[in-house]
């Protein structure tokens, strides 16, 4: 048996730079801001920082629209700031993983600017250009090459009258999709990746990487009632050449290179079976992927604005399937929050009366699974959703487009605002709450997005010195992953799958056996016979010892039952 990869016992922390800490008072988080908080990250104990994009960008989608892949946007700092950050992280034994956004570029990227000039421009074929639908006048409604809708509203095609064709963009019109069929595109990406590795970075988080191979016939998608656009996703998700492209990337970028790297693909719509193909080490594609199944369970038909309460048995079934499906080969990434998801404390917990208990409960359930946990900035101090009440407070392009489109189609504004309050991507993007002081200690200027008024109570300084500290609890969880082989390598057995409020599972490794018991509710819960255990408590979120046969509201216990 070979040595497990280094990242099996690592914990990753995601920084959304715009919202983490502002070093120069312009109201936008930046690299100097991050540099000022390295002690904090080291204290938390995380091994890896994943940095959302800091490359040059017109910031139409907060950096997920890159116009120069080798330069740091001045908004975030200088090249020297970046190298200092990388160096300082390495000095502290931490690694840095960059976001790699290569399904699309920014429309301001010089290559797209060339490509759009003429049909015979040498760069034309770097993107997806198509004629109008036969029988339609180019540019008129319905003339798009196919019926796909973009992820952020409107059609996935934009017409360019100068050359009489449309280009494809799965996201905003400012994010044209790259044509991975063109070998020159692929090799340019690989070269850029090698350039970053030469600079010293430790890996990549690959944005929507399972969208890069499209069905070349670009067929229409199914139109669900109530929608005007078709769902193109079956024709661009996990497409025909995806595994070939990823294997080529692995070879071209990583083969013969010494070091401990991490690759994690963002793969919306990937099933366990597909994830196994992506992450089986013998296939040499990716180390792990971010799957979306568990964050879609509270959405009707996968439509995010059409949300409903989470059914706990559904979540247990899903996580269990992923734990078992990637047990022998492949590897899971474990996350509940990121910059695109509402904060899980507000979404699945009780962010008022049982804020500490439910924050630590979800953290425990996640971190004690087999896989690599990801912590999104602020969850480690129990930050909540934004709680915005006016459309003027929103900044996210998806949220603003949703509001404009749905109200134009007759949805009452209050209803649209309610959906945004629950699901908007701005929920996790409010500034990191460092202190109870002005602007939560995030900036000395005017923040680009409102700071949550609850920062007076919820902030890193207060939390870290509180009796009930979410931060210290995360430290404990991270320490367990670093020190306990059963957490890293043990097998996983779900208990009581049908129970509506109890989340229970066992981990086993050789002679070691752990039992995790969680009461996902605000009421006292009777532990079913056979699961009640008075084995030594490894970690729990109540200070006073409890009755083995009962769990208190949002109580979680990890017990040694060896
Ligand atoms: O997200 C891709 C993605 O599919 C989503 O999580 C998306 O935000 C969601 O479907 C919206 O409802 C990635 C990035 O994480 C996101 O921030 C970018 O906006 C997007 O790609 C485009 O680069
Ligand atoms: Ca700044």
From TrEMBL:
Residues 14-429 form the Glycosyl hydrolase family 13 catalytic domain. This is Alpha-glucosidase. It comes from Arthrobacter koreensis. Keywords: Hydrolase. It comes from the Bacteria. The keyword Lipoprotein does not apply.
């Amino acid at each position: 048996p070979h040595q497990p990869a280094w990242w099996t016992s690592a914990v990753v922390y995601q920084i959304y730079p715009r919202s983490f800490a502002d070093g120069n008072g312009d109201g936008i988080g930046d690299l100097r801001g991050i540099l000022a908080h390295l002690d904090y990250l080291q204290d938390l104990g995380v091994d890896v920082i994943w940095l959302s994009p800091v490359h040059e960008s017109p910031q139409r989608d907060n950096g997920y629209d890159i116009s120069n892949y080798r330069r740091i946007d001045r908004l975030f700092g200088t090249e020297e700031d970046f190298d200092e950050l990388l160096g300082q992280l390495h000095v502290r034994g931490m690694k840095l993983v960059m976001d790699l956004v290569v399904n699309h570029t920014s429309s301001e990227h010089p290559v797209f600017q060339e490509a759009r000039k003429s049909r015979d421009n040498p760069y034309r074929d770097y993107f997806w250009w198509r004629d109008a639908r036969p029988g339609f006048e180019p540019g008129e409604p319905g003339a798009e090459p196919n019926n796909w809708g973009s992820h952020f509203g409107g059609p996935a095609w934009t017409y360019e009258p100068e050359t009489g064709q449309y280009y494809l963009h799965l996201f905003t019109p400012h994010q044209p999709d790259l044509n991975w069929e063109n070998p020159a595109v692929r090799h340019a990406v690989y070269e850029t990746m090698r350039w970053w590795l030469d600079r010293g970075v430790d890996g990549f988080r690959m944005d929507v990487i399972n969208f890069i191979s499209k069905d070349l016939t670009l067929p229409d998608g199914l139109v669900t009632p109530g929608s005007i656009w078709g769902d193109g996703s079956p024709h661009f998700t996990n497409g025909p050449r995806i595994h070939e492209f990823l294997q080529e990337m692995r070879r071209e970028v990583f083969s013969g290179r010494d070091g401990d790297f991490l690759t994690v693909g963002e793969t919306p719509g990937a099933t366990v079976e597909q994830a196994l193909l992506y992450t089986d080490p013998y296939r040499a594609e990716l180390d792990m992927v971010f799957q979306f199944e568990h964050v879609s369970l509270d959405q009707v038909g996968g439509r995010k604005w059409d949300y409903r309460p989470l059914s706990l048995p559904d979540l247990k079934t899903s996580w269990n399937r992923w734990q078992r499906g990637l047990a022998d080969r492949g590897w899971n990434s474990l996350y509940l929050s990121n910059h695109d998801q509402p904060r899980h404390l507000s979404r699945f917990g009780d962010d008022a009366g049982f804020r500490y208990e439910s924050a630590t409960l979800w953290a425990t359930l996640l971190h004690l699974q087999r896989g690599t946990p990801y912590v999104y900035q602020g969850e480690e101090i129990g930050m909540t959703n934004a709680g915005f009440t006016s459309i003027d407070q929103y900044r996210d392009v998806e949220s603003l487009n949703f509001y404009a489109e749905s109200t134009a189609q007759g949805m009452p504004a209050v209803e649209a605002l309610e959906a945004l309050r629950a699901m908007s991507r701005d929920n996790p993007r409010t500034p990191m709450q460092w202190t109870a002081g002005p602007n939560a200690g995030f900036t000395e200027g005017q923040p680009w997005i409102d700071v949550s008024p609850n920062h007076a109570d919820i902030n890193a300084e207060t939390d870290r010195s509180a009796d009930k500290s979410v931060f210290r609890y995360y430290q404990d969880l991270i320490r367990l992953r670093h020190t306990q082989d059963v957490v890293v390598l043990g097998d996983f057995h779900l208990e009581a799958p049908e129970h509506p409020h109890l989340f229970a599972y066992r981990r086993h490794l050789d002679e070691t056996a752990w039992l995790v018991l969680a009461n996902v509710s605000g009421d006292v819960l009777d532990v079913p016979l056979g699961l009640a255990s008075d084995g030594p408590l490894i970690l729990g979120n109540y200070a006073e010892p409890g009755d083995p046969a009962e769990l208190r509201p949002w109580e979680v216990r990890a017990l040694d039952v060896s």
